[in-house]
UniProtKB/TrEMBL annotation, chain A:
It comes from Roseibium marinum. Belongs to the GcvT family. Residues 519-601 form the SoxA A3 domain. Residues 617-887 form the GCVT N-terminal domain. One of its GO terms (biological process) is tetrahydrofolate metabolic process. GO terms for molecular function: sarcosine oxidase activity. Residues 907-992 form the Aminomethyltransferase C-terminal domain. This is Sarcosine oxidase subunit alpha.
UniProtKB/TrEMBL annotation, chain B:
GO terms for molecular function: sarcosine oxidase activity. This is Sarcosine oxidase subunit delta. It comes from Roseibium marinum. Gene3D superfamilies: Folate-binding superfamily. GO terms for biological process: tetrahydrofolate metabolic process. Pfam families: SoxD (PF04267). Coiled coil: none annotated. It comes from the Bacteria. InterPro entries: SoxD (IPR006279), SoxD_sf (IPR038561).
Length: 1000, 101
């Protein structure tokens, strides 16, 4: 049960009990309140992973979400989630974690040979290596790159977790709960504003949770935090969201939060989601994201045991963990000294404080002296020793010449480093704000706000406890006033200690080593060294954007929060340009890696896309019919009987319709009710056809163009009364036709007195087609005469179907006698079952979309979007007859007059009959005039529809062919891999050309 | 996701309720027969594709269903003005000046 690096007391962990967990199968112990990282460190484990490219042993570097090295896989419910940052994984009993990117084991990894071969893997290695020959791109190089890419292994099974989604509104959203965030949240909340406070960590308080050398209002900062959080929690207008990352700042103050709900629990309530996506619209945002410490770029700065100084302090004060027994502190700024002091106070041997500065503040030097800590000023770390754990550091003496003189070796089992602080401007940058360079602190800080946000505290470039609090109060008050107009006076807390300090360094540090032989890491996760950045500049990269992509610096999951400033400084030096001229890359969403599950939410499986079902759906399922997806609709495709294959079933369905009768569910067709005094005038302007003289009770086929002159939709339109039309559209075109009608009505012809209403979902439609159609429906229709004289082809009447009001159309999409009965949707199932029972008595059949397509093609009826493609005019389709000759205007009329649309040589719709009646052409196959055209010869058209026609006992096809109407009777070719297929050009109507079967 | 004010509903709603209808104030020639081919091509295809202050049509498709016009800064996504269909095109330059663009 030993945790050799645990302190005697202190920290925010619960020492009353122990939690058991495993890392790479080895059982270890920790406490509630630990992260996986702190628990590993308590057990003396620094080596937690292998680096991306060189497979170098890596340890825990930080204590926050910026962690680049300690990426682990965590097993849950039999599968693992890869690439979790150990610094963010809360410890629970039974946690199983594994290291990544190593084989066969973390301690012995064969990939580490890459480190020795590293001269072969310079920056731009991929671009230089995987170039030629071209034939290797997809067969050789891609598999190699894919195998080497990535750290963790993706889970094997479908995601077994669920994810929640919430929308929220607030006056003030505060992101971050350090001193400035808590002050801002309190100041805003006291005005009565609705406040959401979120923090990515499990506990609110940020840096205050590891601060024990300062006081607030005379209290321990952690106690102050508890009091403020309790005050906030008691307020109805405040929502507190710990474990919640504000990962995306979008337009108009739309902020996305990822709340981790159950992942920190050993045995979570199965009803709870793993994560919850909060989509927040905030009137004002306070970004209190703090700042993160910069690593120092010295050779071998990546060995396990080397951590950021503040992380070392956090592990000590917050988690009660000593990062080592003999610690070297290397720094360029004041704040790291406090880490040394705190460690010394816990009995850790601080072997030295090596400060880059020639004269660190006297006050710090005297405190160090009082604790007996050796201080080396003007001292730089020039390298480290130790493979799987640092065991010594090389020191160098900074000379006035700028050179470095060797300064000996110092033994240590941990090294804490600090190059200074970088404000976390990610959210500000996501809000489209531009950062500005502040020379005094050597940092980019938020500039002018673009959206309704303000940064506070360290994120705003203000360090020091009192400055952060003051800035936080002001930000909270200002945000609340801007959002609600209200303000309130609250007591501002006073602090002592927690000074900002001075100092800091950027870029690679000087050393006395052979520069070509050492690696000083800039971006740990992507294994980018100072050398790589310099090489990129030498090879011609000028812009930071190019350097970033060439070297991949800043492209890891922290988006360069740790590395950017150092990389910029190195690039600036190599380019001999001021740092501000090199530019900074833009931070993008998400702030930290975010699961796909969070974005998908409940939209998966059956909820991925809505399914629209017709009234016959259950009946089709019961009868063993197959479905076809048409947009969101499930349409019956065909009904195989007695082991029939598709071809046999469709042939039987087609024959039955032509010989007796068939029943088809046409409910998916779009339906629009057009009503009002100007209804006829409106349709006159929308459709090519004339409508004013259409008598009530009659129907007409309508063709819809766009104003360019191309066919966009069609459908039969029935006139129910002088001022009322029942318009049908194609299944897929219903929404767009309705939207187009609204557009013209509202914005071009607002003077027309017309209402249009989509009624697609209000009516169920059964099509009864075939010579016996009249006999089938007769027993159920009341109130009208169904005879050919009283109800001729292309007419519509209102009647009753078994006592239910219906609209009865006599129309046909098969070329047979046909009726389409529209009843209110709720009666659709009754109508379908009634008719399905009746057709059986007449030897009829239900038929699906496949037979429907064959039957319509036999008649040359086009399908919009299949036989047309958005460049086909009515003339091209052989439908000039549908154009009203004497109309003043209609949508597309002027477009049709354009020279190109009247030109010779347009592609036109024709029929094609293969010379061999058994060969069925491929839809989409190209049509040519030459039998064996040379490669590269443009085609003269393509096949749009192709079927076996039972009625003709042979195959038929429709095609769009250049100048096709003039080619009737001529032979063309459809070249295929198996040889060219000769075809004869025909008209588009293959069956019952006179239409005799319609008028019975 | 943008936040858009519908001048008919007189309420701010999320972008998901709306559809952008492209550039505003492209009038369909009232007597198409008299329009030249160039006029018609201009009407059909030519758009200013402004980077900056632009007048656009929007439809509150999942709300009242009405088309209206809005002046938006296409760089910042800021809405500077919304107005009903049929109202005159505002002075975009004046709006830009006022917004300090």
């Amino acid at each position: 049960m030993s945790q050799p690096f645990r302190t005697e007391k202190g920290g925010r962990i619960d020492r009353t009990g122990e939690l058991t967990f495993t890392f790479d199968g080895e059982e270890m112990h920790g406490h509630a309140g630990d992260t996986l990282a702190s628990a590993l460190l308590a057990n003396g484990v620094h080596l937690v992973g292998r680096s991306f490219k060189y497979h170098r042993p890596r340890g825990i570097l930080s204590a926050g979400s910026e962690e680049p090295n300690a990426l682990v896989g965590v097993y849950r419910k039999g599968d693992q989630t890869p690439n979790l940052r150990a610094t963010q994984v809360e410890l629970y009993h039974g946690l199983q974690a594994v290291s990544q990117n190593r084989f066969p084991s973390l301690g012995f990894d064969v990939g580490a040979v890459n480190d020795l071969l590293s001269p072969l893997f310079p920056a731009g290695f991929y671009y230089k290596t995987f170039m030629w020959p071209k034939s290797f791109w997809d067969r050789v190089y891609e598999p190699i790159i894919r195998a080497a890419a990535g750290l963790g292994k993706p889970p094997k099974n479908p995601d077994h977790d669920t994810y929640g989604n919430l929308y929220a509104h607030c006056d003030v959203l505060v992101a971050g709960s350090g001193p400035s965030g808590l002050a801002a949240a309190l100041a805003a909340a006291e005005t009565g504003a609705r406040v959401i406070l979120c923090d990515e960590q499990a506990e609110f308080g940020g840096s205050l949770l590891s601060e024990n050398s300062a006081t607030i209002d005379g209290k321990d900062p952690a106690i102050w935090v508890a009091e403020i959080v309790a005050r906030l929690a008691a307020m109805d207008n405040v929502t507190l969201l710990p474990r919640t990352t504000a990962f995306g700042y979008f337009a108009h103050n739309f902020i996305a939060l990822a709340e981790r709900v159950t992942e920190h629990l050993s045995d979570p309530d199965p009803r709870l989601p793993r994560e919850r996506l909060w989509q927040v619209r905030a009137k004002e945002v306070v970004i209190a994201a703090g700042a993160i410490e910069r690593p120092m770029v010295f050779p071998e700065n990546d060995r396990p045991g080397i951590l950021l100084a503040d992380a070392g302090r956090t592990y000590l004060n917050r988690y009660g963990v000593k990062v080592g027994h003999k610690v070297l502190v290397a720094t360029a700024c004041d704040t790291a000294w406090q880490a040394a002091f705190d460690l010394a106070d816990h009995g850790v041997e601080v072997v030295a404080i090596a400060d880059l500065r020639e004269s660190p503040p006297e006050s710090l030097v005297s405190i160090a002296a009082a604790r007996g800590i050796r201080v080396e000023a003007g001292c730089v770390v020039t390298g480290t020793l130790g493979r799987k754990r640092v065991r010594a550091a090389l020191l160098g003496r900074m000379m006035t010449s700028g050179q470095v003189a060797a300064g000996g070796q110092i033994e240590c089992d941990a090294l804490l480093m600090s190059g200074g602080w970088t404000p976390t401007v990610s959210l500000f940058s996501q809000s489209r704000g531009k950062v500005v360079w502040e020379a005094e602190t050597g940092a980019f800080v938020p500039g002018k706000s673009v959206q309704k946000e303000r940064s506070a505290g360290a994120a705003n470039g203000l360090y020091g406890l009192q400055a952060s609090l003051t800035d936080g109060y002001a930000a909270g008050e200002g945000a609340a006033r801007a959002a609600t107009g209200k303000s309130a006076t609250i007591n501002h807390s006073r602090t002592s200690g927690g000074e900002a300090g001075t100092g800091g360094t950027l870029g690679a540090l000087p050393h006395d080593r052979n520069a070509s032989r050492v690696k000083a890491f800039v971006d740990y996760q992507n294994d980018v060294t100072a050398k790589d950045v310099k090489l990129a500049v030498r090879e011609g990269m000028q812009s930071i954007e190019h350097i970033k992509r060439y070297t991949t610096t800043g492209m890891a999951t922290d988006q360069g929060r740790l590395s950017n400033m150092n990389a910029l400084q190195i690039a600036s030096g190599a380019l001999e340009k001021p740092l501000t001229d090199v530019g900074l890359t833009t931070f993008r969403q998400p702030f930290t890696p975010t699961t796909f599950g969070l974005f998908a939410g409940v939209s998966r499986g059956d909820f991925f896309d809505p399914v629209r079902k017709t009234p016959s759906h259950d009946w089709v399922v019961e009868k063993g019919g197959l479905f076809e997806d048409v947009g969101q609709w499930k349409r019956a495709w065909y009904f195989p009987k007695n082991g029939e294959d598709m071809h046999a079933a469709v042939e039987r369905e087609c024959r039955t319709v032509r010989e007796s009768v068939g029943l088809f569910d046409a409910s998916t067709l779009g339906k629009i009710e057009v009503a009002g005094p100007d209804a006829a005038e409106f349709l006159e302007r929308m459709y090519t056809n004339p409508w004013k003289k259409l008598a009530p009770g009659r129907c007409r086929y309508g063709l819809l163009l766009n104003d360019a002159g191309f066919i966009t939709d069609d459908g039969v339109i029935g006139r129910l009364a002088d001022d009322r039309f029942h318009v049908t559209t194609t299944t897929g075109g219903a929404p767009s036709v309705f939207a187009t009608m609204e557009d013209y009505l509202q914005t071009e012809w607002p003077e027309l007195d017309v209402w249009i209403t989509s009624t697609t979902d209000q009516y169920a439609v059964a099509a009864i087609q075939g010579p016996k159609a009249r006999e089938v429906i007769a027993p159920f229709i009341e109130g009208i005469d169904l005879s050919a004289e009283a109800l001729p082809h292309m007419s519509v009447k209102e009647a009753m179907f078994r006592g239910i009001p219906c609209r009865l159309f006599r129309i046909s999409f098969t070329g047979e006698l046909g009726f389409e009965i529209n009843v209110p949707r709720r009666h659709g199932k009754m109508m379908w079952e009634t008719l399905a029972g009746e057709i059986e008595k007449h030897g009829g059949t239900a038929y699906g979309t496949e037979a429907m397509h064959v039957l319509r093609a036999e008649k040359g009826y086009i399908i919009i979007g299949q036989d047309t493609d958005g460049t086909v005019t009515p003339q091209d389709a052989g439908m000039s007859w549908a154009i009203g000759k004497n109309k003043f205007d209609f949508v597309g009329k002027r477009g049709l007059e354009r020279p190109d649309l009247k030109a010779e040589n347009r592609k036109q719709l024709v029929g094609l009959l293969t010379k061999d009646p058994k060969i069925k052409l491929e839809e989409g196959a190209q049509v040519t005039t030459l039998e064996n055209p040379a490669t590269g010869t443009p085609a003269d058209g393509h096949v749009t529809s192709s079927y076996y026609s039972p009625a003709l006992g042979r195959t038929i096809a429709l095609a769009i062919v250049r100048n096709g109407h003039a080619l009737e009777g001529k032979t063309l070719y459809v070249p295929m891999p198996e040889g060219s297929i000769p075809v004869e050009v025909t008209g588009t109507v293959f069956y019952d050309k006179e239409g005799a079967r319609l008028n019975v | 996701m943008l936040l858009i004010y519908c001048p008919y509903c007189q309420i701010e709603r999320a972008e998901i309720e709306f559809r952008c209808g492209g550039e505003a104030h492209i009038a369909r020639p009232s007597d198409p027969e008299k329009a030249t081919d160039d006029d018609w091509v201009e009407f059909l295809y030519m758009r200013s594709n402004t980077k900056g202050i632009a007048a656009e049509r929007w439809r509150h498709i999942h709300g009242c269903g009405r088309f209206f016009n809005a002046v938006r800064d296409t760089v910042s996504d800021e809405f500077l003005k919304v107005y009903k269909t049929g109202e005159a095109k505002p002075d975009l330059e004046a709006i830009a000046r006022e917004a300090g663009k």
